[in-house]
Amino acid sequence: MTEFFNQISRRKFILTAGVSASAVLLKGCLGNPPEAGGGSSTQPAAQPVANLSADQQPEITKAKLGYIPIVESAPLIIAKEKGFFAKYGMTDVDLSKQASWGSARDNVEIGSAGGGIDGGQWQMPMPHLITEGKITKGNKPIPMYVLAQLITHGNGIAIANKHQGKGISLQLAGAKSLFSQLKSSTPFTAAFTFPHVNQDLWIRYWLAAGGIDPDADVKLLTVPAAQTVANMKTGTMDAFSTGDPWPYRLVTDKIGFMAALTAEIWKNHPEEYFAMRGDWVDQHPKATKALLKGIMEAQQWLDNFENRKEAAQILAGRNYFGLSSPEILADPFQGKYDMGDGRKIDDKSMAAYYWKDSKGSVSYPYQSHDLWFITENVRWGFLPQDYIANGAAKAKELIKKVNREDIWREAAKELGVPAADIPTNTSRGVEEFFDGIKFDPEKPEEYLKSLKIKKVSV
């Protein structure tokens, strides 16, 4: 067993398979239990079937995709419900609601033939870690392919209401004394639902940027979704990574407030991804592109803000998110956030985007973004430093094996996506964060050197 997996075990990661339906609203890595049937009971909306040439007819019409009921999963659900999968020949796509990210990991290990899943929605860099056997049973490598980015934005850092007015916001300079005070008694406790990926990394970056060492100054926990609300209400948890539609409930129920949106931490940042088992893709290359075309068309549909009211109604349904009202999604989908601390945001550029944002393509899986997630894993000691040595040669080799942006390009061309909307470079270039730090994918070691708080000695 690797040290990486030992770390997860020590953190006592808990898989949840039977949690109550009251947890369905938790988002940004906060999932809910699977339900019988998994997907919607409604029939897909009628769509004209694409006139597929013989070389585009999928080898198989069936695929089983896992998802967590959060806004990142919207392209999969809309592709199913609006008939976009069927339009390209994938008439039997089964969307399987996962109890947790650990459950999704377990289910992709066994594949659909064993009662699991072929792929679906993932936090990063889970596909790379599964490929390397870092988080699988017995550390068995299971090759996976990253095929598309699903979304940007739609996440944030939630804080318990007991900390209102104590200086906890995007910038933490005014709250350092609070963290120091809590450290000597009951440490500030922040939670996420799977270690070493998106939500863990957002919390860590935010804390470290404010001069708070996430490994020394606070207590970080892996918490099952079902326990999150109770822990926040009882005061046993001070913060957790969350996002749409949960901020609405946090604020209106007076449970907590939002210190920051991830759109503020890193504008137009990569969020969650669509990835499949490598063996499934290798056996079904045409079906893979058919799935991608359905997802791409769903992403375009979602980025028409006039469609978002309907999208909220579909997602809120009992068989998907199980929300009490689609209105819980409506405002965030338009970039409207009541942060719960007196601050209100009304800015469409801060909303979730699925197809295109102000920096260009959202759907295209830039390999430079994969490198940032891996570099952050090195930063916090989750992966060995040799992944980014010698110009990140080891990381880049892994990324080229896992990130199949070439398949995305092929599918986009078959779909008729304009050439201007198909990136010509696997790197989006230099990225900048709210604290002024820049990540140059050509110089990951320099990025690490520029960071004051880290575990790796660079």
Q: Can you give the helix content as a percent range? A: 25-40%
Question: Class of the domain at 3-153 and 270-316, according to the CATH hierarchy?
Answer: Alpha Beta
- The total count of strands amounts to 16
**Category from helices, strands and their pairing:** alpha/beta
Provide the CATH architecture of the domain at 3-153 and 270-316: 3-Layer(aba) Sandwich
CATH topology of the domain at 3-153 and 270-316: D-Maltodextrin-Binding Protein, domain 2
What can you tell me about this protein's structure?
Pfam families: NMT1_2. InterPro entries: NrtA/CpmA_ABC-bd_dom, TAT_signal. Its main location: membrane. This is Bicarbonate transport system substrate-binding protein. Among the domains are: 198 residues, 3-Layer(aba) Sandwich (D-Maltodextrin-Binding Protein, domain 2); 111 residues, D-Maltodextrin-Binding Protein, domain 2. The relative contact order is 0.15. Helix content is 36%, strand content 14%. The strands form five sheets. A five-stranded mixed beta sheet has the order 2-1-3-10-4, sandwiched between helices. A five-stranded mixed beta sheet has the order 7-6-8-5-9, with helices on both faces. Strands 11-12 form a two-stranded antiparallel ribbon. Strand 6, helix 7 and strand 7 form a beta-alpha-beta unit. Helix 2 packs across helix 12, helix 12 crosses helix 17 and helix 15 packs across helix 16. With 458 residues, it is of the alpha/beta class. The protein contains 18 helices and 16 strands.
